[in-house]
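Title: Prediction job returns without error message
Component: structure pipeline
Severity: low
Priority: P3
Assignee: unassigned

Description:
Job completed but the reporter wants confirmation the result is attached to the right record. Sequence as submitted:
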Amino acid sequence: MRKLLPKTTRLKSRKDISFIFLKGKSVFVHPIKVNYSINTDEKSVQLVFGISVSKRNFSKAVDRNRIKRLLRESIRLNKSELEIELNTKNIKIKCMFAYIGKQMPDFALINEKIILTLRQLKTINEPSS
């Protein structure tokens, strides 16, 4: 399976982002918090996500952008397992990954924590209607 990150997997809508934070559920593996909601849109892909890093903890944009790049790369490398699981359950989710740590991370730490959060996201069940 090719490990791509097309534009269709990026969460950009302010409306969707605010809905996720207001009414969604969350998963937490320090220093990464994931807020998510089940997606009802039939045309979208299995996993749509956005990334956020606090300006309070990292005042320099260079540092925030580096952390976002590390998170995006780690998600790109490890999301295929989650997408397969979501596909078998016929679930589509939208989620926001937020880095809430206070120190600049390295890729090994980010990758380890992303794998743990994606494993927790695999346990999502379809909402009862």
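Comment from assignee: result matches the submitted record. The longest strand covers residues 32-38.
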